[in-house]
Amino acid sequence: MNRILIVESGATKTDWCALAPDGRVQRLQTPGMNLSSISAEANAAVFADAVAQFSGVEEVHFYAAGLLEFPADLDRVFKERFPEARCEYASDLVAAARAACGHGPGIAAILGTGSNTCQYDGEKIVRNIHGGGFIIGDEGSAAALGRMFLADLVKELVPEDLAEAFAVDHEADYVSVVRNVYKTPAPSRYLGSLAPFLLEHRGEAYVDELIDRNFRELIERTLVRYDRLPVGVVGGFGNACRARLERLGAEYGITFTRFIPSPMEGLIDYHGV
Fold first, then answer.
1. Which residues contact 70 (CB under 8 A, 6 or more apart)?
2. How many CB atoms lie within 10 A of CB 99?
3. How does pLDDT run across 7-19, given as a tens digit for each residue?
4. Count of Cβ atoms closer than 10 Å to residue 49 Cβ
5. Residue 70, domain extent
6. How far apart are CA 161 and CA 85, in angstroms?
7. Integer Cα distance of 150 and 184 in angstroms
8. 240 lies in a domain?
């Protein structure tokens, strides 16, 4: 019997974790989704197969990107499988706040492919300066870093040796760059996929300045506008840049206290049996 089922769904993957009263943990991973851009019918079909893997659930805590309204189709899937269960539905930002801050006040920052931030009072989000998405926002994210790099690349502002290294494993000509940004179904994912290349070249002056500029924009445009509370970071990109964020934060009087690659571990602590 699994008393609590936690589901954390992003655009890339969905993590499932069932917590039993005796401490046993059952995990599952399925394809991701974004509720604002994928049909409810398609989402429900994927989830029905996953839900069948669990039994005896008394509580469901479902977190997802793009959760703008009550997901009736998904609620039906859960209720058919667990008719007595109490189901909660919340955004990925609530998941990040609970994972990063637990039951205490703080600032949560999602720093993955995209970015978002909020101020949390230990129970609810009290302020959210919107991320804005990869075109007009997402400061501090992997996609924003990739966008900044490509903007320099097409203007021939990237140091020649770095541009040549990039061209070894990436389509670096102007036509290909423009096509990948403007003609692919997931441009944010493409931009974010360039971050590992840049992180491999940390220590080079140009790359270090670019990464710092990306995080300074996050700090100056969002983090300093919240109350001065400890900041917890959720996301693989932010976790990979921990030392740099801590150093830059100190310049602005901001303290980063927790870094977790994925929300699930923090959510297990938050909902713990």
1. 89
2. 25
3. 998 766 789 999 9
4. 10
5. 4-97+265-271
6. 58
7. 15
8. no
